[in-house]
Amino acid sequence: MTSLDKPTSDTDQPHRTDQQDADAKAVTEAALFEAFGGVRGMVETVLPGLLFVTIFTINQDLTASAIAALAVSVALVVVRLVRKDTVKHAFSGVFGVAFGVVFAKMTGEAKDFYLPGMIYTLGLALAYLVTTLAGVPLIGLILGPVFKENLSWRTRNPGRKKAYAKASYAWGLILLAKCAILFPLYWWADTTQLGWVLVSLKIPPFLLAVYLTWVFLAKAPPPIDVFAEMEAEEQAEKARKAEQGARAAEARNHDL
């Protein structure tokens, strides 16, 4: 069993000082901002839907509302491309808005602009819960590469796996609660009522889930940097081969 496969337990973790706890919280906060897009990502998530419901509330025009929402989504991607920023959050927004526009135009119901996003939210909630029950919490799959630990938490860092499980359950239950509000409104409320409630529920549940994730991970054992470990092993292997080469050369010189 190599060092990369060797499991650790919670008791193997040294007691952390207050400064180390503060550093862990700062690293976790930075990783969460990177993974979920931070303030700018939240703006890009909310703005298209807000524009759609605002315009539709004013003039009840599905086409104008859809074009405006799609246009602002594309504009956000263009801005990121020009600034050479990460575009994954903006692109996901474009695809979400595009699906909503296509669905609404196909059915002729402005309310259906929101339906693909609602179905996605429900699917994501179930994914968080099912993957956690299966022993591979989704939030760990998302954040593992960000923390440079990949999947090492599954077998080598049980305290961290437990934190990922708690965070994934939090995400799943929060999103299910959101769906429990939105789907009845889809059937009973009109487009503007559903739209304003949906926009108002974009940020608070997300912030709650991110906050709980931060709390769970900040208290968990630090991540195992598997990239640093692999690099260290590669350096050790190179040193070993160099030493063997030197010994072989010395042996040849001795024979001569």
Automatic annotation (TrEMBL):
It comes from the Bacteria. Keywords: Membrane, Transmembrane, Transmembrane helix. Pfam families: DUF3159. The keyword Transmembrane helix applies. Coiled coil: none annotated. The keyword Membrane applies. Residues 7-21 have a biased composition (Basic and acidic residues). InterPro entries: UCP010219. The chain crosses the membrane at residues 62-82, 89-106, 118-147, 168-188, 194-217. This is DUF3159 domain-containing protein. It comes from Streptomyces atroolivaceus.
